[in-house]
Amino acid sequence: MPALSWGKGVAEDLLEGRGSPPLRRWVVFCLCAVLFICSQFYRVSNAIIAPQLQRDLGLSPESLGLLTALFFYTFALVQLPLGPCLDRIGARRSMAALTIVGSVGAWIFASARALEGAALGRVLLGAGMAANLMGSMKLFTTWFSPREFATLSGLIIALGTVGNMVAATPLALLVEAFGWRWSFATIGGFTALLAILFYVLVREGPYGISRQEEMAPSLGEMARTLLGRREYWIISLSTFLRYGIFVAIQGLWVGPYLMEVVGLSAVQAGNLLLILNVGLIIGSPLSGWISDRVLSSRKKVVMAGLVGMALSLLVLAMGWASGNTPLLAGVLFTFGLSSGAGIVMYAHIKELMPGAMTGVALTGVNLFTMLGGGFFLHLMGWALERLSGGGPVGPEAYRAAFLIGVAGLVVAFSLYIRTREEYP
To answer: For the domain with range 10-211+219-416, which CATH number is right: 3.60.150.10, 1.10.238.10, 3.20.20.80, 1.20.1250.20?
Structure first.
């Protein structure tokens, strides 16, 4: 393949699809990671601004849970048309167009005066961010080798966790200085600029051509193949439970818990959320690397992660670490570290399906992943409101809500032990 042109700049070579594959594929990876950072930020940002949202929009705990969950419900529904779009029209156009939709959602959310306006903003944000992880994984199948897939998937999750971190202490400081409305309006503008840059620089594969030469089967054939696999249903139900419980804790309810029960300030709670996300940053690529290079197994890594999540959430639920900040930080770090193994589920389903339907296989699982996020965010909000009787939410209510999560993780482990795998 031709080297970078000496008479032109690197940017021009990238625009025209030239340049050495090692350089171009890492440019693609970095741009995918930045878009996924935005997705992660928007997913969990309500955890830090929850008190302001409840005050300014007049939200109850159940309404706050529903508002946060709308992102995940919409995200999940978009997975249905997204898979065929990724396989047939490509990840580049799908990701860029939807990200623009997300930027509009951020502006609407920032200007909302009641639940209805904020809900519309969250719906558009959910739709807008729906392609940024699955589209990235689709691009990885054309730019990288199969034995790098789990490692790269874990690495992008780790980098995407920067969005979670920005939604913790940095967002708390930004909101303290300028307010949540101005903050989200500005971030929405940045998101629109990223979408344009991604569309200009990214191609579907080396020279714009995918390595896969086989024609994608019809939608009916893809649906029959996917839905007819027992492993698809087990992996999907397991990720529904695993991710739903994780994001309900990390994306919303651990923030109010730390402030209302443990008695921490917003910035102190943000610091502990940062520690949780550091665990996720380490755990995601580490899990992928162990799966790819050490154990040569997807199943074992996922099951170990489910055990770690269940045990750390049990400690949090029972309040065994609430009076000891270093121990509490360690529990949250372990929860984040263990949850990183969940990304290996995508490598697991990818290897069980034909290469020409990678997009459908990934989004088919991601549909359940994001439905789980919405379901458990709403369920825990509903439980907290009912258990508190409409008054202040106390430690007993949080204990019951978190124990729901522990039970769900036990069920996920019991399901996943029944899967089989086909490691490449």
So the answer is: 1.20.1250.20
